[in-house]
Amino acid sequence: FAFVQRLIRARSEREPAVLLVDDLHWIDPGSDAFLARIVEAVSGTRTLLLVNFRPEYEADWTRKSHYQQLPLLPLGPEGIEELLRHLLGEDPSVTELLEPIRERTRGNPFFIEEVVQSLAESGSLEGTRGAYRRVTPVAEVVVPTSVHTVLSARIDRLSEREKQLLQKAAVIGKEFSQPILEEVAELPSVELAGALAALSAAELIREEALYPVAEYAFKHPLTQEVALGSQLRERRRRTHAAVA
């Protein structure tokens, strides 16, 4: 730790820096203890430690004088309207979808995006992002009641090949490399590449790097969580064993 502390302080003397740590609610005890030392190291330097976490995460360092918390509140009515117009477009046929989506999602931007994507994949919407039109009667449009529900529905609509690949990737972790996935995927390289491209196009995963090996990450931790929970325990165990 002393080396990391010296590194942070030395870097701060040259120029300002930002350290970003995502999703602390998933952190393991060892990493959490290390993070607490980092909090001490950045105090009095020109380094900003930026973290995000769900309300259930707690740590002693959040009571320190140099800590400031900025709650991320749900979008207000105007923000919801703006986001939905950006995603759906201005076609008159989508106007009647605004209110039910607003009521169900309660200003959660990720939920809003996933609902619109799900409606497009289910055939209720036609067109492209920002230029959709509704082709299903409003009374027949089903707006999912939770983020987990919409993610489960999206995963279930995948082809069997893509669904199994996503589930195996979820066992590996939030981030995964193509070589490791190849070891457990049981797919020819061409099919694997095609499935990864399809999952990326569906915005379930995103490409993080191409060199020295292809690296991917789930778009959101909840996507990984739902994909992990959607498979039988025995299948998860076999994939874990293969990865290990």
TrEMBL record:
UniProt organism field: marine sediment metagenome
Record's GO cellular component terms: cytoplasm
InterPro entries: P-loop_NTPase (IPR027417)
Gene Ontology molecular-function annotations: adenylate cyclase activity; ATP binding
Descriptive protein name: Orc1-like AAA ATPase domain-containing protein
Keywords associated with the record: ATP-binding, Nucleotide-binding
